[in-house]
């Protein structure tokens, strides 16, 4: 078992603490929070060991789980890496692309592993269809959330849209050619609603919409590729695959056949892949343990986190 500690005991930090405490791959040593009163109250309520010094906690563990506000990610990760500790760091990886690049260089220098908490990669609906995604040429994402004061200190792009940016970059194996975007501040000092269009060198286009002041929650992405349409509902953890193939000469009574202007007939058929239930946060944490123990590449690398932040920053720069 790997000795692990958590930096930050806020809403998400407490979830990480609970899951790490339950995991068979980690031994939860304790946690640190910059607010001593809050740290001690979490210790009293849940029984986790509170460290009043970040340095003492880092010294006592093998893996540092960073769930602090984004502005402190770089400093926390830098301290951990320089002491030879592996780092799991919540998204976005850092506050700036320059900081992210520095972390990548430090990880290579100190020969430790790092993973970024882009949890939607572990969403069971996405995992169920990922192998069927083959050079999509148009992608449409809607990530809408009801208003929650937590997270409004950063633009909605870094709060919500970055999830979809990472998913898209993991699927589209091409460089970004152009980004155009617009954002509107309604309640916060930073944009609460944003729309972005990402164009890739290979011709793929992704259209992303994110809002944190919606009347309902929605997390849907639709992928369009040759002879297939694939829909992923990240919120409901459901997916649908609609495919086309050449129509048979003698179609059945219930076969769905389309004919274009040139007379070419295609048969449409539907798939609803099985979506096994899982805890995506636990999965991302435990696969990181596997990467450390087996000396393999983490599923979401610091490079992945850096590129997602790079594109997010390009979007924000358009506002």
TrEMBL record:
Superkingdom of origin organism: Bacteria
Gfo/Idh/MocA-like oxidoreductase N-terminal domain mapped to chain residues: 2-118
Q: Which GO terms describe its molecular function?
A: nucleotide binding
- InterPro entries cross-referenced by the UniProt entry: Gfo/Idh/MocA-like_OxRdtase_N, Gfo/Idh/MocA_Oxidoreductases, GFO_IDH_MocA-like_dom, NAD(P)-bd_dom_sf
Q: What Pfam families does the record tag this protein with?
A: GFO_IDH_MocA, GFO_IDH_MocA_C3
Q: Which residues form the GFO/IDH/MocA-like oxidoreductase domain?
A: 156-216
What protein is this chain from? Oxidoreductase
Source organism of the structure: Aurantibacter aestuarii
């Amino acid at each position: 078992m790997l000795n692990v500690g958590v930096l930050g005991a806020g809403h998400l930090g407490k979830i990480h603490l609970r899951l790490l405490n339950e995991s068979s791959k980690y031994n939860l040593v304790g946690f640190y929070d910059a607010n001593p009163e809050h740290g001690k109250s979490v210790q009293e309520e849940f029984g986790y060991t509170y460290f009043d010094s970040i340095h003492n906690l880092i010294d006592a563990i093998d893996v540092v789980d960073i769930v602090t506000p984004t502005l402190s990610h770089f400093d926390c990760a830098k301290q951990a890496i320089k002491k030879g500790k592996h780092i799991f760091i919540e998204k976005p990886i850092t506050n700036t692309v320059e900081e992210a690049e520095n972390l990548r260089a430090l990880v290579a220098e100190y020969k430790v592993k790092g993973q970024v908490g882009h949890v939607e990669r572990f969403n069971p609906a996405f995992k169920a269809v990922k192998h069927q995604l083959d050079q999509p040429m148009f992608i449409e994402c809607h990530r809408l959330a009801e208003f929650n004061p937590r997270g409004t200190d950063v633009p909605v792009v870094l709060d919500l849209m970055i999830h979809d940016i990472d998913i898209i970059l993991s699927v589209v194996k091409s460089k970004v050619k152009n980004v155009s975007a617009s954002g509107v501040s309604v309640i916060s000092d930073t944009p609460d609603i944003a729309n972005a269009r990402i164009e890739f060198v290979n011709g793929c286009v992704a259209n992303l919409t994110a809002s944190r002041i919606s009347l309902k929650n929605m997390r849907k992405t639709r992928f369009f590729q040759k002879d297939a349409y694939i829909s992923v509902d990240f919120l409901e953890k459901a997916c649908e695959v609609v495919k086309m193939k050449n129509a048979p000469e003698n179609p059945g009574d219930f076969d769905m056949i389309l004919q274009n202007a040139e007379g070419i007939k295609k048969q449409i058929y539907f798939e609803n892949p099985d979506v096994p239930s899982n805890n995506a946060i636990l999965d991302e944490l435990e696969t990181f343990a596997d990467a450390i123990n087996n000396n393999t590449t983490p599923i979401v690398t610091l490079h992945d986190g850096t590129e997602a932040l790079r594109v997010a920053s390009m979007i924000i720069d358009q506002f």
